[in-house]
Amino acid sequence: MTIENVTSQPAGDSDVLESTNARQARVYDNFIGGENGLATDRAAGAWIRMQAPGLVAAMQANRAFLSRAVQWLTRQGVDQFIDIGSGFPVSPNTHEIALSASPSGSVVYCDVDPTVGERTRALIAGQAGASFVLGDIRNPEELLAQPAVQGLIRSGRPVACVLAAVLHFVPESADPARITAVLRDALPRGSYLVLSHVASDIPWGDGNDEETLKRATEDMYLRTQEQVTGFFGDFELVAPGVVSAPHWRGSEETAGDGPDLAIYGGVGRKI
């Protein structure tokens, strides 16, 4: 039972999707305020909101972390971004933040789901500096070989590689440590890695139904802070390091003394 099937409501023929990834993307989209889901996705999202509000809060915190990280990077002068596992576009998107700060910059989105590609291409049509490529994070060499990605890497200027809430869908059998090492090695010196990941060592709040959480996250591979930190390799972590996502450079309103949510966020720089 995966995140998209936490309700017993059967899907009609029109709701049959091409891949599990598409359903996951749509339910996540529902969590963060998107409108790309089908009726079954909205039903699953509503059920999880009631039974596992901590998971919804974690996904919302992830989205807020991504926005803050991109904003911070633009202030460091970074204007090239590769957003891998980008998911359905929900404003503010990476390109909206990055290109508003630097209109001459470039953002390449990458996702394995063709439907995500269709929606993203429709959104960025006519937007200079923004593009989309189909690619699977489990095949990083093929992803990096895409001409749009190569164009950023070969510039020799810093590139921010964004892996927001995507690695927790990669099992150990697919070797996420190797995947992140390949991506890190390809980036020019001075580049950054932005990464968020659902945590296995931060407890969920009391308001969550344990069985719903188990069913909703069984297609995820939750990892510890140490494991997530390991994905940065020898990159220099930006303060405050790998922390619960709301606490990564959050304001008093977004972080403050609030509880940790079960998702880590961090940014590292290639020195």
Automatic annotation (TrEMBL):
Name of the protein in question: SAM-dependent methyltransferase
Lineage: superkingdom: Bacteria
Single biological process term from Gene Ontology: methylation
Any one GO molecular function term: methyltransferase activity
InterPro entries in alphabetical order: SAM-dependent_MTases_sf, SAM_dep_MeTrfase_SAV2177_type
Entry keyword set: Methyltransferase, Transferase
One Pfam family recorded for the sequence: Methyltransf_19
